[in-house]
Amino acid sequence: MKQVGDDEGETPEETRKRIKEEIELKQDNKQLQEDLKREKKRRLSIEESKRDLLDELNSLMREKELLLKQQSDDKENGKLLEDMISLRKKLGEFDTENKRLKKEVKELKEALSEVIVTHDEEKERVLEECENEKSEMMEELVASKRELESQLQELFAMNDDLKGTISNLQEELKESSERFSTEIDVPNENIESGTSKGISHEDNGLLSQTLKQEGGDQEAKQGKSPSTEFQNLAEQWKTERDELQEMFKVEKERLQKTFDDELKRKLAENDEQHKQRNEEMATEINRKFSIEKKEIKASVEKKIY
């Protein structure tokens, strides 16, 4: 109603102006519609471009991830390669160290063999010395035995001489008795008895003097009979012989016991010395080997870590 009232009150000029404005408004509206469509299209295009860009960005991101993963793999492979090279280098060092240790073990075995050989040689030398000492003592014992046997032979010879002297004296006494019995005529029994006593006394004195000179027996001075003197001399010789044999036996047993005791002592002493020396050498070798083993272990651990 207002528009109609306005139209009715408008002038033609105003009407033309209004129509012109309406036409312009319509044109502007149409232009705006077109601009809006273009804007929508542009926005749609932008959205599509945005989606394409996002897709491309996602693709690039995936490619980037793949590249990063590939770079990481390459880096990891390079690290693994470096680790492998380092391990091979360490294996080479360990191989060298192992060869050195084998060489040292071989040297230690050779040194131990030399020690064993030296011990055996020392043992043989000591045994040889003991055998020599035993031989020397046996020679001394044999010499002492020979000396005692020589003394015993001398006593036997003295006994034979004494027996010969006694036999000669008995023969002389017998001859003297027979000679005096044939040459002297005794007038009566008393004179004969006295003469016989005198002759016997004279012969006994001569026999006693001879026995004194030969055997040094003091009992002849006491006027004993020849048979008693001979018996005493025989008993004395037997006693001296028994004493010498007993002395020889005791001396032989003493020398043998002394030799056995000394031999046992020397063998025990040598065995103890060798045992102590072997224990000391074994302890020293074990100590050195333990020290070298610890040093090698520490060196290997240091190289590894």
Structure report:
With 305 residues, this protein is mostly helical. It is 94% helix and 0% strand. It has four helices and no strands. Helix 2 (12-183) packs antiparallel against helix 3 (189-215) and helix 2 runs antiparallel to helix 4. Mean pLDDT is 73; it is low at 1-5, 185-208 and 214-224.
Low-confidence stretches: 1-5, 185-208, 214-224
Number of helices: 4
Beta-strand fraction estimate: under 5%
Radius of gyration: 73 Å
List SSEs in N-to-C order.
Answer: HHHH
Query: What's the end-to-end separation, in Å?
Result: 103 Å
**Class from secondary-structure proportions:** mainly alpha
Overall pLDDT confidence = 73
Instruction: Using the alpha-carbon principal axes, give the shape.
Output: rod-shaped
Major sheet attributes: none
Tally the beta strands: 0
What topology emerges from the helices and strands here?
Layout: H1 2-9, H2 12-183, H3 189-215, H4 226-304
Helix pairs in contact: 2-3, 2-4
Short descriptors:
disordered N terminus, rod-shaped, 305 residues, mainly alpha
In summary, what is this structure?
By secondary structure, the chain is mainly α. It has helices at 2-9, 12-183, 189-215, 226-304. The longest helix is centred in the first third of the chain and has 172 residues, at 12-183.
